[in-house]
């Protein structure tokens, strides 16, 4: 039997993030890409695969041109926040098949600066064609769809608003250990509940921040690992899944597509959820974290509320540190944040996280991490299991 070619993440980086008023999205792409290549210690001439989404008419063609790349393998899959986990899966498959040797994933957005400058307004809907036309007249905004799902979970399983608030409180505690996070001041459950209601049951602090920022991840075939300045973090298993477009076509509001993508990723990696040391989970809203923890198998369905209590998600003293940089709820969220999850997961496994570094019970660095992205309104999911060398 021929051995399967292994794939490693060898370079990760963020651009300037948070409040970046003087940069274009292209500039943030370029900054993150340069930093990721420098992190790996590799020249851009090695990059023959490129993946990007969310910018330009012909992404990733326009972004590749801006970066001075001429890739022979490209991916522009766009499935919202899960885009980057799905792209990482595609990139790993391409490298295994010999279609590429090094694939660069890059994202950048000036979502916050654009609103401030009046270049864009809030997204009320994603369009009025296709299946969405049957929901748009009723005012279903993106956040309203997540709020409906959260309320369904509360009704079905007795999940409380205080339990959902705990997700925000613990994300902020982790952000307090991250000097690059936008918001670091500790918050309490009472403060979360006292905020203005955005979409019942979500108050303001149940919702992600809006920021500027970019990220980049470089994956390479195993034979190039020896040329890198960083320790490799191996792609052990991936999974992807889509669920629905119209809310009326979603069979169960309490089950996300991570139930499928997670199962596939863990099976392909040959590991169990109980073996994971750190989890980076898409958290545009607190309910996303809670239900994804259930669907990835960290607790049983309906037990997410109880699971997130008692500080389980914290870097300091948590049984399963989650969103160790502060997540989209506190660190940064420029939209389609899935690539930031991969960056943080890799940094944790490598031991590059400083004060927020997770340690196993024996003091060792994490051996296994999972990054799980969610797109649309629980429409899609991509999950990647990563491991130390």
Keywords:
389 residues, 11 strands, 9-stranded mixed beta sheet, 12 helices, single chain
Number of strands: 11
Which class of secondary structure composition applies to the elements? alpha/beta
Strand order of the largest sheet: 3-2-4-7-1-8-11-10-9
In round numbers, the mean pLDDT is: 95
Helix content bin: 25-40%
Pattern of helices and strands: EHEHEHEHHHHEEEEHEHHHHEE
Please report the number of helical segments.
Answer: 12
**Principal-axes shape call:** globular
Radius of gyration: 19 Å
Uncertain stretches of 5 or more adjacent residues? none
Q: Please report the distance between the alpha carbons of the first and last residues.
A: 23 Å
| Strand residues, percent | 15-25%
How would a crystallographer describe the biggest sheet? 9 strands, mixed
Account of the 3D structure:
With 389 residues, the protein is α/β, with parallel strands linked by helices. It has twelve helices and eleven strands. The chain has helices at residues 25-40, 61-67, 83-96, 111-116, 142-157, 161-175, 189-194, 258-269, 286-295, 304-308, 327-330, 338-350; strands at residues 7-14, 49-51, 73-75, 102-109, 197-199, 202-203, 213-221, 233-242, 278-281, 368-375, 380-388. The protein has a nine-stranded mixed beta sheet with strand order 3-2-4-7-1-8-11-10-9, with helices on both faces. The chain has a two-stranded antiparallel ribbon with strand order 5-6. α6 (161-175) crosses α9 (286-295). The radius of gyration is 19 Å and the shape is globular. The mean pLDDT is 95.
């Amino acid at each position: 039997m021929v051995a399967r070619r292994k794939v490693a993440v060898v370079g990760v980086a963020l651009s300037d993030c948070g409040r970046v008023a003087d940069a274009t999205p292209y500039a943030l792409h370029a900054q993150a890409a340069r930093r990721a290549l420098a992190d790996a210690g590799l020249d851009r001439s090695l990059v023959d695969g490129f993946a990007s989404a969310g910018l330009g008419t012909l992404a990733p063609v326009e972004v590749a041109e801006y970066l001075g790349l001429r890739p022979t393998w490209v991916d522009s899959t766009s499935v919202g926040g899960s885009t980057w986990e799905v792209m990482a899966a595609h990139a790993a498959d391409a490298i295994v098949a010999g279609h590429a040797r090094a694939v660069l994933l890059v994202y950048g957005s000036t979502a916050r600066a654009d609103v401030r400058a009046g270049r864009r307004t809030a997204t009320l809907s994603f369009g009025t064609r296709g299946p969405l036309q049957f929901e748009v007249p009723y005012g279903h905004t993106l956040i309203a769809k997540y709020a409906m799902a959260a309320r369904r979970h509360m009704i079905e399983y007795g999940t409380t608003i205080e339990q959902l608030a705990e997700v925000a409180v613990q994300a902020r505690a982790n952000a307090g250990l991250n000097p690059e996070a936008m918001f670091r001041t500790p918050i309490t459950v009472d403060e979360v509940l006292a905020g203005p209601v955005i979409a019942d049951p979500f108050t303001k602090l149940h919702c992600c921040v809006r920021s500027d920022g970019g990220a980049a991840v470089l994956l390479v075939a195993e034979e190039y690992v020896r040329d890198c300045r960083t320790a490799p973090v191996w792609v052990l298993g991936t999974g992807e899944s889509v669920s629905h477009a119209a809310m009326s076509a979603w069979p169960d509001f309490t089950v996300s597509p991570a139930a499928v993508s997670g199962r596939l990723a863990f099976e392909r990696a040959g590991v169990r959820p109980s073996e994971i040391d750190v989890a980076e989970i898409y958290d545009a809203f607190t309910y996303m974290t809670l239900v994804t923890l259930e669907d990835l198998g960290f607790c049983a369905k309906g037990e997410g509320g109880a699971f997130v209590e008692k500080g389980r998600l914290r870097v300091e003293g948590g049984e399963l540190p989650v969103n160790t940089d502060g997540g989209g709820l506190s660190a940064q969220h420029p939209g389609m944040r899935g690539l930031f999850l991969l960056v943080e997961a890799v940094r944790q496994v490598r031991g590059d996280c400083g004060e927020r570094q997770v340690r196993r019970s024996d003091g060792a660095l994490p051996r296994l991490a999972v990054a799980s992205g969610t797109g649309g309104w629980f429409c899609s999911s991509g999950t990647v299991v990563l491991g130390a060398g």
